[in-house]
Amino acid sequence: MKDIIITPNSLSGEVIIPSSKSIGHREIICASLGDGESIVDNISMSKDIEATCNGLKNLGATIKEIPSKIKDRRAFLIEGVNGKIKLQNKNIYCNESGSTLRFLIPLGALSSEEIIFNGEGKLKERPLDPYFEIFKQDNINFETCNDKINLPLKINGKLKGGKYFLPGNVSSQFVSGLLFALPLIENDSVIEITSSLESASYVDLTLDSLKKYGISIENQNHKRYIIKGNQKYKNIDSDVEGDFSQGAFWLVAGALTDREVISKGLNIDSLQGDKKILEILKRMGVNLKIEKNKIISSSSNTKGTIIDANDCPDIIPILTVLAALSEGETKIINAGRLRIKECDRLNAIATELNKIGGEVIELSDGLIIRGKKSLNGGKVECWNDHRIAMSLGIASIKCKEKLILSGANCVDKSYPNFWNDFINLEGKIEEIK
Hints:
Layout: E1 3-7, E2 13-16, H1 21-32, E3 37-43, H2 47-58, E4 62-66, E5 74-79, E6 91-93, H3 98-108, E7 115-118, H4 129-137, E8 141-143, E9 153-156, E10 162-166, H5 173-181, E11 189-193, H6 200-212, E12 217-220, E13 224-227, E14 237-239, H7 244-256, E15 260-264, H8 276-283, E16 287-291, E17 294-298, E18 306-308, H9 316-324, E19 329-333, H10 345-355, E20 360-363, E21 366-370, E22 378-381, H11 386-395, E23 403-406, H12 418-424, E24 428-431
Parallel strand pairs: 2-15, 3-14, 6-7, 10-11, 18-19, 22-23
Antiparallel strand pairs: 1-23, 1-24, 3-5, 4-5, 7-9, 8-9, 11-13, 12-13, 15-17, 16-17, 19-21, 20-21
Helix pairs in contact: 1-2, 1-6, 2-3, 3-5, 5-6, 7-11, 9-10, 9-11
């Protein structure tokens, strides 16, 4: 489905939400560092998860697919490296996955051998400066392509432990990457956060996974992390919970239809920062009914609000769609980091919604959206960004005319079955041959 035509139609029915990609990355990494065999089940496969699995195999883990106990999901039997990186291939290909790159770089630096990280698209330009400062501190040799393009990145050297300083306003992934690696070093370590930590909930997910796999970290209010050295990852069996950032698309779809959409598989007690979607939707007037293991969203008269993107950046594109179809004005704040994702998501979603009749104004670190009752339809670009593509797909519900999406197959990065689920909810899609 490279290019598709969507005929506007209300969606209705049940959808099983994909498992959390964020938690999936973390559990597969922890299992790969463990002593013995672990099973990680309920994995919704995507290009990002595939990149992490392949990278970990190159670092010495054995990862085999086994039958899942959950329909249409994957399960992995993982033989861990017992905390000792055993390099099988020095070339680690991360595709377009920022999580894969930033989580695996510190693990690669547990080896004293040369390792080369590479990837595709905007990943080559995404910041890695916090790691470069650590490399200088620990005398780890590194080479990048040039000042603007960081990949391929060649590293040769070994993390030593001790005290590390990280900015909190670039990406929490740098914190998580070090938290995976530092417990395996002989020396104790401290991570000091030098500015306010954005997306702290993602670090909470990392700490929760580490705890499950036997690693102890002292978290001092997300300002300092105390890490004892010489720890061991244990082997466990685990199921990955549903993903609120993916569920957000269907929760918004239910609000925009004249019927209802039932989202199944979300953990209402989740630590995921994107669970904030529920609070934001309620504030905007969405009719939500929360039952055991399912959330029902139905036709709603929604209104604008202020949305702070600080701890939930991934749900901003779909919330922009809802805001564009809500009464009054919505302001999205603290969203500057969306400009360094797979694309500049603030510019992308503003540009495409405005093409089809929306009224979205870009700010340096946010958006102002003035709501309309409907959108026009027409042709839009997906910007090779899965979240832009899925958000525009949901926007089609309220279009007067057909919506043509160019590059709709980019959903494969995180949610390959998105368009199939869209069709199963009575969406009308025609593929352009």
